[in-house]
Specification:
globular, Glyas_Fos-R_dOase_dom, Glyas_Bleomycin-R_OHBP_Dase, 182 residues, 2,3-Dihydroxybiphenyl 1,2-Dioxygenase, domain 1, VOC_core, VOC family protein
Length: 182
């Protein structure tokens, strides 16, 4: 099998018109394909660059959102989601554009964290300011459907030293930190 990248990620929206407005006007992703489904629904595709699309389904009758189960309830305080759910989607942007992206989101009234987040390998996983250990800088926000989004800029290439944790699972829980119960 030769995987060449992500073709599209398909999500479900509550209002296609509102979704089209947000993705075309705020995020400036061109609407490139629309499909009328035989059951009365719609399936629309937005170009998110690099040959990949973000797609949305809409149906007249769809189960309501389930924050804290199928989507993030509140980032960063309550960001766990259920097995099989999508936690968030991250789009690649140039690091130099992150502040302008944040300002654009804020000007459009989009719910966003008010800062660019510097992810590093420290115990907290974030730093107040960029430094050589920061590997990605991000802006987090939600779309009109409550879907968690991230604009992300890797700040360096990854190497073998970046893979240093054993995978955990139900039969192999994460080790407890002092004073913290897993």
């Amino acid at each position: 099998m030769n995987i060449n990248g992500v073709n599209h990620l398909a999500l479900v929206c509550r209002d296609m018109a509102q979704t089209v407005k947000f993705y075309t006007e705020v995020l400036e992703m061109p609407l490139v394909k629309t499909v009328a489904l035989p059951d009365g629904g719609q399936h629309f595709f937005f170009d998110c660059g690099g040959g990949s699309c973000l797609a949305f389904f809409w149906w007249p009758e769809t189960p309501p959102a389930a924050p804290g189960i199928a989507s993030v309830r509140a980032f960063p305080a309550d960001s766990k989601t259920a097995v099989g759910s999508m936690n968030h989607i991250a789009f690649t942007v140039d690091e130099a554009d992150l502040e302008a992206c944040l300002e654009r989101l804020q000007a459009a009234g989009v719910p966003a964290l008010p800062v660019v987040v510097n992810h590093d390998d420290s115990e907290m996983g974030v730093a107040r300011t960029p430094h050589p250990g920061v590997f990605v800088r991000s802006v987090y926000f939600t779309d009109p459907n409550g879907i968690m989004m991230e604009l992300a800029a890797f700040t360096r290439d990854f190497g073998p030293e970046d893979v240093r944790h054993e995978p955990a699972g139900a039969s192999k829980p994460l080790p407890e930190k002092e004073g913290v119960v897993a």
